[in-house]
Amino acid sequence: MHVLGIDTSCDDTGVGIVAIDDDGTSRVLANVVASQAAVHAAYGGVLPEQASREHLSVIDAVVGRALEEAVLAIADVDAVAATYGPGLAGALLVGLTYAKGLAFGLGVPFAKVHHLEGHVAASVASGAAGAGPTPPFLCLIASGGHTVLFDVPAWGTYRPLGRSLDDAAGEAFDKVARLIGLPYPGGPALAALAAEGDPEAVALPVPLARQEGFDFSFSGLKTAVAVRLEREPDLRPADVAAAFERRAVDHLRSVAQRAAAALGRQDLVVAGGVAANRRLRSELGDAGLRVFLPPAGLATDNGAMIALAAAQRLFAGTVDADDLRADATPYLPLADAVARPRDATPRRG
Ligand code: KG4
Ligand code: ZN
After folding, report:
1. Which pLDDT band holds residue 122 (cuts at 50, 70, 90)?
2. What pLDDT score was predicted for residue 43?
3. Do 202 and 63 share a structural domain?
4. FRET partner for 170 with CA separation of 20 to 30 A, picked from 40, 119, 156, 281?
Protein backbone atom coordinates (compact mmCIF):
# COMPACT_ATOMS: atom_id res chain seq x y z
CA MET A 1 0.00 0.00 0.00
CA HIS A 2 1.28 3.49 -0.90
CA VAL A 3 0.38 6.51 1.23
CA LEU A 4 1.00 10.03 -0.06
CA GLY A 5 1.36 12.64 2.70
CA ILE A 6 1.24 16.43 2.40
CA ASP A 7 2.38 19.07 4.88
CA THR A 8 1.74 22.76 4.23
CA SER A 9 1.46 23.89 7.84
CA CYS A 10 4.01 26.69 7.59
CA ASP A 11 6.45 27.76 4.89
CA ASP A 12 7.57 24.46 3.36
CA THR A 13 5.53 22.51 0.82
CA GLY A 14 6.26 18.88 1.73
CA VAL A 15 5.06 15.80 -0.13
CA GLY A 16 6.19 12.30 0.82
CA ILE A 17 5.26 8.79 -0.22
CA VAL A 18 5.50 5.80 2.10
CA ALA A 19 5.01 2.11 1.31
CA ILE A 20 3.37 0.00 4.02
CA ASP A 21 3.70 -3.77 3.97
CA ASP A 22 0.96 -6.12 5.17
CA ASP A 23 2.58 -6.40 8.62
CA GLY A 24 2.54 -2.60 9.03
CA THR A 25 6.23 -2.07 8.23
CA SER A 26 6.73 1.29 6.50
CA ARG A 27 9.42 2.57 4.09
CA VAL A 28 9.86 6.11 2.80
CA LEU A 29 9.89 6.03 -1.03
CA ALA A 30 9.91 9.77 -1.65
CA ASN A 31 10.34 12.96 0.34
CA VAL A 32 10.24 16.25 -1.59
CA VAL A 33 10.23 19.61 0.18
CA ALA A 34 9.92 22.93 -1.66
CA SER A 35 11.32 25.56 0.68
CA GLN A 36 9.93 29.08 0.66
CA ALA A 37 12.84 30.38 2.75
CA ALA A 38 14.07 32.70 -0.01
CA VAL A 39 10.60 34.27 -0.34
CA HIS A 40 10.29 35.02 3.38
CA ALA A 41 13.94 36.00 3.98
CA ALA A 42 13.18 39.61 3.04
CA TYR A 43 10.74 39.83 5.97
CA GLY A 44 12.92 38.03 8.55
CA GLY A 45 10.06 35.60 9.23
CA VAL A 46 7.11 33.89 7.58
CA LEU A 47 4.56 36.15 5.87
CA PRO A 48 1.39 33.99 6.21
CA GLU A 49 -0.56 35.19 3.17
CA GLN A 50 2.49 34.83 0.94
CA ALA A 51 3.05 31.32 2.32
CA SER A 52 -0.44 30.21 1.18
CA ARG A 53 0.10 31.64 -2.29
CA GLU A 54 3.45 29.90 -2.66
CA HIS A 55 1.97 26.55 -1.55
CA LEU A 56 -0.77 26.93 -4.12
CA SER A 57 1.62 27.69 -6.93
CA VAL A 58 3.98 24.74 -6.31
CA ILE A 59 1.91 21.95 -4.75
CA ASP A 60 0.99 20.22 -8.00
CA ALA A 61 4.62 20.18 -9.14
CA VAL A 62 5.85 18.92 -5.76
CA VAL A 63 3.36 16.03 -5.88
CA GLY A 64 4.62 15.25 -9.40
CA ARG A 65 8.23 15.24 -8.21
CA ALA A 66 7.41 12.94 -5.29
CA LEU A 67 5.72 10.46 -7.65
CA GLU A 68 8.79 10.58 -9.90
CA GLU A 69 11.10 9.98 -6.94
CA ALA A 70 9.00 6.99 -5.82
CA VAL A 71 8.73 5.76 -9.44
CA LEU A 72 4.96 5.57 -9.13
CA ALA A 73 1.96 6.80 -11.10
CA ILE A 74 -0.84 8.71 -9.39
CA ALA A 75 -3.07 5.64 -9.81
CA ASP A 76 -0.65 3.67 -7.56
CA VAL A 77 -1.55 5.86 -4.57
CA ASP A 78 -3.79 3.91 -2.15
CA ALA A 79 -4.39 6.63 0.47
CA VAL A 80 -3.78 10.36 0.80
CA ALA A 81 -3.00 12.22 4.04
CA ALA A 82 -2.50 15.85 5.01
CA THR A 83 -1.79 17.98 8.05
CA TYR A 84 -4.98 19.63 9.33
CA GLY A 85 -3.35 21.52 12.23
CA PRO A 86 -1.74 23.19 14.02
CA GLY A 87 -0.25 25.75 11.65
CA LEU A 88 -1.09 28.82 9.57
CA ALA A 89 -4.77 28.68 8.56
CA GLY A 90 -4.34 29.65 4.90
CA ALA A 91 -1.25 27.50 4.44
CA LEU A 92 -2.93 24.44 6.01
CA LEU A 93 -5.99 24.91 3.79
CA VAL A 94 -3.97 24.55 0.59
CA GLY A 95 -2.48 21.13 1.41
CA LEU A 96 -5.60 19.85 3.16
CA THR A 97 -7.97 20.81 0.35
CA TYR A 98 -5.61 19.50 -2.32
CA ALA A 99 -5.24 16.18 -0.47
CA LYS A 100 -8.97 15.73 0.09
CA GLY A 101 -9.66 16.48 -3.57
CA LEU A 102 -6.98 14.04 -4.68
CA ALA A 103 -8.29 11.26 -2.40
CA PHE A 104 -11.86 11.88 -3.49
CA GLY A 105 -10.88 11.91 -7.17
CA LEU A 106 -8.88 8.68 -6.84
CA GLY A 107 -11.58 7.06 -4.72
CA VAL A 108 -9.10 6.21 -1.93
CA PRO A 109 -9.19 6.94 1.84
CA PHE A 110 -8.17 10.36 3.16
CA ALA A 111 -6.41 10.56 6.55
CA LYS A 112 -6.14 13.78 8.54
CA VAL A 113 -2.90 14.07 10.52
CA HIS A 114 -1.87 16.25 13.46
CA HIS A 115 1.36 18.02 12.52
CA LEU A 116 3.14 17.08 15.76
CA GLU A 117 2.08 13.46 15.45
CA GLY A 118 3.78 13.55 12.07
CA HIS A 119 7.01 14.72 13.72
CA VAL A 120 6.70 11.96 16.33
CA ALA A 121 6.01 9.32 13.65
CA ALA A 122 9.27 10.29 11.87
CA SER A 123 11.25 9.68 15.06
CA VAL A 124 9.41 6.47 15.99
CA ALA A 125 10.11 5.13 12.50
CA SER A 126 13.83 5.83 12.97
CA GLY A 127 14.51 2.63 14.94
CA ALA A 128 15.67 -0.35 12.93
CA ALA A 129 12.94 -2.95 12.44
CA GLY A 130 11.84 -4.21 15.85
CA ALA A 131 14.13 -1.78 17.68
CA GLY A 132 11.87 1.26 17.88
CA PRO A 133 10.39 2.63 21.07
CA THR A 134 7.39 1.03 22.74
CA PRO A 135 5.35 2.86 25.35
CA PRO A 136 5.84 3.97 27.99
CA PHE A 137 8.32 6.60 26.75
CA LEU A 138 8.96 10.31 26.98
CA CYS A 139 8.50 12.48 23.92
CA LEU A 140 10.22 15.85 23.50
CA ILE A 141 8.95 17.95 20.61
CA ALA A 142 11.15 20.96 19.79
CA SER A 143 10.25 22.85 16.64
CA GLY A 144 9.84 26.42 15.46
CA GLY A 145 6.35 26.66 16.92
CA HIS A 146 6.35 24.19 19.82
CA THR A 147 8.49 22.97 22.69
CA VAL A 148 6.62 20.38 24.74
CA LEU A 149 7.49 17.33 26.79
CA PHE A 150 4.95 14.51 26.91
CA ASP A 151 4.77 11.24 28.75
CA VAL A 152 3.41 8.59 26.37
CA PRO A 153 2.13 5.73 28.55
CA ALA A 154 0.36 4.07 25.57
CA TRP A 155 0.25 4.66 21.79
CA GLY A 156 -1.87 7.71 21.11
CA THR A 157 -1.90 8.95 24.72
CA TYR A 158 0.06 12.17 25.19
CA ARG A 159 0.23 13.40 28.80
CA PRO A 160 1.78 16.89 28.88
CA LEU A 161 4.55 17.21 31.47
CA GLY A 162 5.87 20.64 30.52
CA ARG A 163 6.11 23.19 27.73
CA SER A 164 7.88 26.39 26.85
CA LEU A 165 6.57 29.28 28.92
CA ASP A 166 7.59 31.71 26.17
CA ASP A 167 9.45 31.16 22.86
CA ALA A 168 9.71 27.73 21.26
CA ALA A 169 13.28 26.38 21.07
CA GLY A 170 13.49 26.75 17.28
CA GLU A 171 12.00 30.23 17.48
CA ALA A 172 14.75 31.20 19.93
CA PHE A 173 17.42 29.79 17.58
CA ASP A 174 15.89 31.86 14.75
CA LYS A 175 15.68 35.05 16.84
CA VAL A 176 19.23 34.77 18.19
CA ALA A 177 20.47 34.08 14.66
CA ARG A 178 18.81 37.32 13.61
CA LEU A 179 20.49 39.22 16.48
CA ILE A 180 23.85 37.92 15.25
CA GLY A 181 23.01 39.04 11.72
CA LEU A 182 22.39 35.67 10.10
CA PRO A 183 19.70 35.45 7.42
CA TYR A 184 16.32 33.71 7.90
CA PRO A 185 15.83 30.83 8.62
CA GLY A 186 18.49 31.19 11.24
CA GLY A 187 18.46 27.95 13.27
CA PRO A 188 20.64 25.79 11.01
CA ALA A 189 22.95 28.74 10.20
CA LEU A 190 23.39 29.52 13.90
CA ALA A 191 24.19 25.88 14.61
CA ALA A 192 26.81 25.86 11.82
CA LEU A 193 28.42 29.05 13.17
CA ALA A 194 28.36 27.68 16.73
CA ALA A 195 30.60 24.81 15.64
CA GLU A 196 33.40 27.35 15.09
CA GLY A 197 32.94 29.15 18.40
CA ASP A 198 33.94 28.72 22.04
CA PRO A 199 30.88 28.34 24.31
CA GLU A 200 33.02 29.29 27.35
CA ALA A 201 33.87 32.70 25.90
CA VAL A 202 30.45 34.25 26.62
CA ALA A 203 28.69 33.66 29.95
CA LEU A 204 24.90 33.30 29.62
CA PRO A 205 22.25 32.46 32.25
CA VAL A 206 20.85 28.97 32.77
CA PRO A 207 17.08 29.02 32.03
CA LEU A 208 14.69 28.02 34.87
CA ALA A 209 17.64 26.79 36.92
CA ARG A 210 15.59 26.28 40.06
CA GLN A 211 12.30 24.89 38.76
CA GLU A 212 10.96 21.60 40.05
CA GLY A 213 8.61 21.05 37.11
CA PHE A 214 9.43 20.21 33.50
CA ASP A 215 8.85 23.51 31.69
CA PHE A 216 11.15 25.32 29.30
CA SER A 217 12.01 28.98 28.76
CA PHE A 218 14.12 30.51 26.02
CA SER A 219 13.26 34.20 25.92
CA GLY A 220 15.51 35.11 28.88
CA LEU A 221 18.43 33.52 27.08
CA LYS A 222 17.59 35.41 23.91
CA THR A 223 17.35 38.71 25.83
CA ALA A 224 20.68 38.00 27.55
CA VAL A 225 22.26 37.59 24.09
CA ALA A 226 20.70 40.87 22.93
CA VAL A 227 22.02 42.73 25.99
CA ARG A 228 25.52 41.28 25.65
CA LEU A 229 25.70 42.18 21.96
CA GLU A 230 24.57 45.72 22.65
CA ARG A 231 27.13 46.22 25.41
CA GLU A 232 29.97 44.36 23.70
CA PRO A 233 29.55 44.68 19.92
CA ASP A 234 33.03 43.21 19.40
CA LEU A 235 32.10 39.77 20.72
CA ARG A 236 32.89 37.04 18.18
CA PRO A 237 29.56 35.99 16.59
CA ALA A 238 30.73 32.35 16.58
CA ASP A 239 31.35 32.49 20.35
CA VAL A 240 27.91 34.03 20.99
CA ALA A 241 26.30 31.34 18.81
CA ALA A 242 28.20 28.57 20.61
CA ALA A 243 27.32 29.92 24.07
CA PHE A 244 23.63 30.25 23.19
CA GLU A 245 23.47 26.84 21.58
CA ARG A 246 25.11 25.20 24.57
CA ARG A 247 22.68 26.78 27.05
CA ALA A 248 19.61 26.00 24.90
CA VAL A 249 20.66 22.40 24.28
CA ASP A 250 21.65 21.82 27.95
CA HIS A 251 18.23 23.13 28.97
CA LEU A 252 16.36 20.73 26.64
CA ARG A 253 18.55 17.82 27.69
CA SER A 254 18.44 18.47 31.43
CA VAL A 255 14.64 18.88 31.65
CA ALA A 256 14.10 15.68 29.64
CA GLN A 257 16.67 13.82 31.72
CA ARG A 258 15.12 14.97 35.02
CA ALA A 259 11.64 13.97 33.81
CA ALA A 260 12.93 10.54 32.77
CA ALA A 261 14.44 10.01 36.22
CA ALA A 262 11.29 11.24 37.98
CA LEU A 263 8.98 8.98 35.98
CA GLY A 264 11.36 6.05 35.65
CA ARG A 265 11.38 6.21 31.84
CA GLN A 266 14.32 4.83 29.82
CA ASP A 267 13.22 5.78 26.30
CA LEU A 268 13.10 9.30 24.88
CA VAL A 269 11.63 10.14 21.47
CA VAL A 270 12.83 13.53 20.20
CA ALA A 271 10.93 15.17 17.36
CA GLY A 272 10.72 18.47 15.46
CA GLY A 273 13.12 20.69 13.55
CA VAL A 274 15.49 21.30 16.47
CA ALA A 275 16.10 17.53 16.61
CA ALA A 276 18.35 18.16 13.59
CA ASN A 277 20.77 19.99 15.90
CA ARG A 278 24.09 18.13 16.15
CA ARG A 279 24.94 19.29 19.65
CA LEU A 280 21.51 18.20 20.91
CA ARG A 281 21.92 14.80 19.26
CA SER A 282 25.32 14.23 20.79
CA GLU A 283 24.35 15.48 24.30
CA LEU A 284 21.28 13.27 24.35
CA GLY A 285 23.48 10.36 23.33
CA ASP A 286 25.40 10.84 26.61
CA ALA A 287 22.29 11.25 28.77
CA GLY A 288 21.94 7.59 29.75
CA LEU A 289 18.66 7.13 27.87
CA ARG A 290 17.65 5.23 24.74
CA VAL A 291 17.08 8.13 22.37
CA PHE A 292 15.05 7.99 19.13
CA LEU A 293 15.76 10.84 16.73
CA PRO A 294 14.31 11.61 13.31
CA PRO A 295 16.53 10.46 10.44
CA ALA A 296 18.27 13.09 8.31
CA GLY A 297 15.73 14.85 6.11
CA LEU A 298 12.77 13.99 8.34
CA ALA A 299 13.53 16.34 11.29
CA THR A 300 12.20 19.55 9.79
CA ASP A 301 8.75 19.79 8.21
CA ASN A 302 8.10 17.29 5.43
CA GLY A 303 5.34 15.22 3.85
CA ALA A 304 6.88 11.79 4.51
CA MET A 305 6.31 12.18 8.26
CA ILE A 306 2.63 12.88 7.56
CA ALA A 307 2.42 9.74 5.42
CA LEU A 308 4.15 7.75 8.22
CA ALA A 309 1.66 8.96 10.83
CA ALA A 310 -1.22 8.24 8.43
CA ALA A 311 0.17 4.75 7.81
CA GLN A 312 -0.04 4.08 11.55
CA ARG A 313 -3.65 5.30 11.65
CA LEU A 314 -4.60 3.28 8.57
CA PHE A 315 -2.95 0.19 10.02
CA ALA A 316 -4.78 0.71 13.32
CA GLY A 317 -8.09 1.15 11.48
CA THR A 318 -8.84 4.63 12.85
CA VAL A 319 -9.22 6.41 9.49
CA ASP A 320 -12.84 6.83 8.40
CA ALA A 321 -15.02 8.94 6.13
CA ASP A 322 -15.19 11.59 8.87
CA ASP A 323 -11.58 12.52 8.12
CA LEU A 324 -12.82 14.16 4.91
CA ARG A 325 -14.74 16.61 7.09
CA ALA A 326 -11.60 17.79 8.92
CA ASP A 327 -11.12 21.54 8.70
CA ALA A 328 -7.86 23.46 8.84
CA THR A 329 -7.34 23.96 12.58
CA PRO A 330 -4.62 26.50 13.48
CA TYR A 331 -4.79 25.87 17.26
CA LEU A 332 -4.79 22.15 17.98
CA PRO A 333 -3.16 20.80 21.16
CA LEU A 334 -1.83 17.29 20.57
CA ALA A 335 -3.19 15.87 23.84
CA ASP A 336 -6.77 16.68 22.72
CA ALA A 337 -6.44 15.64 19.10
CA VAL A 338 -5.15 12.11 19.09
CA ALA A 339 -6.97 8.95 20.04
CA ARG A 340 -5.68 5.61 18.93
CA PRO A 341 -6.39 2.09 20.18
CA ARG A 342 -3.81 0.80 22.63
CA ASP A 343 -2.77 -2.20 20.59
CA ALA A 344 -1.93 -0.14 17.51
CA THR A 345 1.83 -0.63 17.75
CA PRO A 346 3.43 0.86 14.62
CA ARG A 347 6.21 -1.20 12.99
CA ARG A 348 9.34 0.07 11.41
CA GLY A 349 11.16 -0.91 8.28
O1 KG4 B 1 9.59 21.35 12.83
P2 KG4 B 1 10.02 22.49 11.99
O3 KG4 B 1 10.57 22.22 10.63
O4 KG4 B 1 8.86 23.51 11.78
C5 KG4 B 1 7.87 23.74 12.71
O6 KG4 B 1 6.91 22.93 12.76
O7 KG4 B 1 8.06 24.70 13.49
O8 KG4 B 1 11.08 23.28 12.85
C9 KG4 B 1 11.72 24.39 12.33
C10 KG4 B 1 12.61 24.96 13.42
C11 KG4 B 1 13.17 26.32 13.04
O12 KG4 B 1 12.96 27.22 14.10
C13 KG4 B 1 14.64 26.03 12.79
O14 KG4 B 1 15.46 27.14 13.06
C15 KG4 B 1 14.91 24.90 13.74
O16 KG4 B 1 13.73 24.10 13.66
N17 KG4 B 1 16.09 24.14 13.33
C18 KG4 B 1 17.22 24.07 14.06
C19 KG4 B 1 18.12 23.28 13.30
N20 KG4 B 1 17.51 22.90 12.13
C21 KG4 B 1 16.26 23.43 12.18
N22 KG4 B 1 17.52 24.58 15.26
C23 KG4 B 1 18.74 24.31 15.74
N24 KG4 B 1 19.68 23.60 15.08
C25 KG4 B 1 19.42 23.06 13.87
N26 KG4 B 1 20.35 22.34 13.24
ZN1 ZN C 1 6.97 21.10 12.32
Report:
1. very high
2. 87
3. no
4. 156
